[in-house]
Amino acid sequence: MFTDDPAEFERRVVDDVQQYLHDTFVDTTWPACPEHPHHPLWYSDGWWKCDHSGRRVAALGGLRRAAGQL
Questions:
Q1: 67 backbone φψ class: left, alpha, beta (φ>0; ψ -120 to 50)
Q2: In angstroms, rounded to a whole number, what is the distance separating the alpha carbons of residues 63 and 41?
Q3: Could you write out the three-class secondary structure of 1-46?
C-alpha cells in the first residue's frame, strides 16, 4: 500500500483519482484525449498519453481545462 519511491507514489495517486472518477461516473473519459474525446488519456512515466496514438499530451499538472469545465 505504501512506497518509498516518489515516482511510484505519484503514479498510484494519479491512478486512484482517475479510477475513482471513472468508477463513480463523475467523468468516464477524464482526462479526455484532445485527439479522441471519447476516451481518456492515461498516465505513465510523468505524462498523460493517448492510448491510441501513443502521443504524450501533457506532463502531470500541464493539462488545460476545456471551455465550460469547472
A1: beta
A2: 10
A3: CCCCCHHHHHHHHHHHHHHHHHHCCCCCCCCECCCCCCCECEEECC
Please give the Cα distance from 63 to 66 (Å, whole number). 9
> What burial letters (b/e) apply to 27-47, b meaning 16+ CB within 10 Å?
eeeebbbeeeeeebbbbeeee
Residue 38 corresponds to which cell in the numbers above? 471519447
Per-residue pLDDT tens, the chain, 70 aa: give them: 678 899 999 999 999 999 999 999 999 999 999 999 899 999 999 999 999 999 999 999 998 865 445 4
DSSP state of 68: T
> pTM here?
0.81
